[in-house]
């Protein structure tokens, strides 16, 4: 596979070094199957309200299975896509995701629910563009941070992706979707931090963003959510109801759980039991042991993603693998924290397990890309020897440490090819 560098020369090769990561695929399949099982368990009891809408016990399960089938199509396409092509499509994909994000506000296209406009009509269901934004941002950042002119000691290099992130956040907050905006910020800052950007840049931006964050939190409904998070038992029948019911679910589960399908909280006690708070149902039905196994599976998924990243000698692929691993793992971590009352409720689904087609499709596409990376060694020689020496010297001067293993391997290969 070849693509042209800035000088117009074809310098990229793709050399297989191993088969695709079977453990990553196995863990993903295990989470998807377990998720489908939990979707059925949490929605199989039909309340009188649902009965009036002619919703059967298999309604959500069938829709979820349909999404899984489409998701495997996304996974396969992502597995087959050429990585140089994906790199070239980074900016067009980012623009496309921005356009979809704006379309949610257009009458006849955007879909409103619960006082928010976060979805667009897409037969036979809806799609949430903010999920595509996260995937697009990871691909864009991987390309941007692997470009020769990106310098970790340059404020200009730092602020460019931050400006793009803020632009997306403004649109997302208009929907409003505070959880997705914060998730995008965590993901962007994490990737910039791992690239070696100066900590004072991140710290300065965090300080300047505090007044904006304060204003956002002081919105009445958000402030109420924060106060109820701090003391949900103060209003257990009001704003603290969901979190209190989540605590009851975990407490009822104990060590081994009450058994599959035996949850009491799913009987209209715990709101969003099949989406944002499905982890609480897992804790109730499978107990501490079952919840710990789910956390361990996501930890394995993250470790395998980082392992895949460590095997590549190309900057773009390295950052892409790390970013995709973070995208899935951070969302899972936030969901765990919200369900257990560590952070305020964010409205983020649990990857591969919660009911929610947009998140499932994008996460399965991310796994497809990771499997794609794991099957080969994507090697780039676009940098000349002088640029390599300058980047290595700048990193040493700023941090006083050597470059990460992946960059050292890349530099050795590039220097040898230019001498």
Structure description:
By secondary structure, the protein is mainly alpha-helical. It folds into two domains: 12-382, no CATH class; 387-419. 65% of the residues lie in helices and 5% in strands. The chain has helices at residues 22-43, 48-52, 59-80, 83-88, 90-103, 129-145, 155-174, 178-194, 199-217, 220-230, 241-253, 278-310, 315-339, 357-374, 385-399, 405-418, and strands at residues 12-15, 110-113, 116-122, 125-127, 377-380. It has a three-stranded antiparallel sheet, with helices on one face. Helix 5 (90-103) packs antiparallel against helix 6 (129-145), helix 6 runs antiparallel to helix 7 and helix 13 (315-339) runs antiparallel to helix 14. The longest helix is centred in the last third of the chain and has 33 residues, at 278-310. The two termini are 23 Å apart. Mean pLDDT is 83; it is low at 1-18, 380-391 and 401-419.
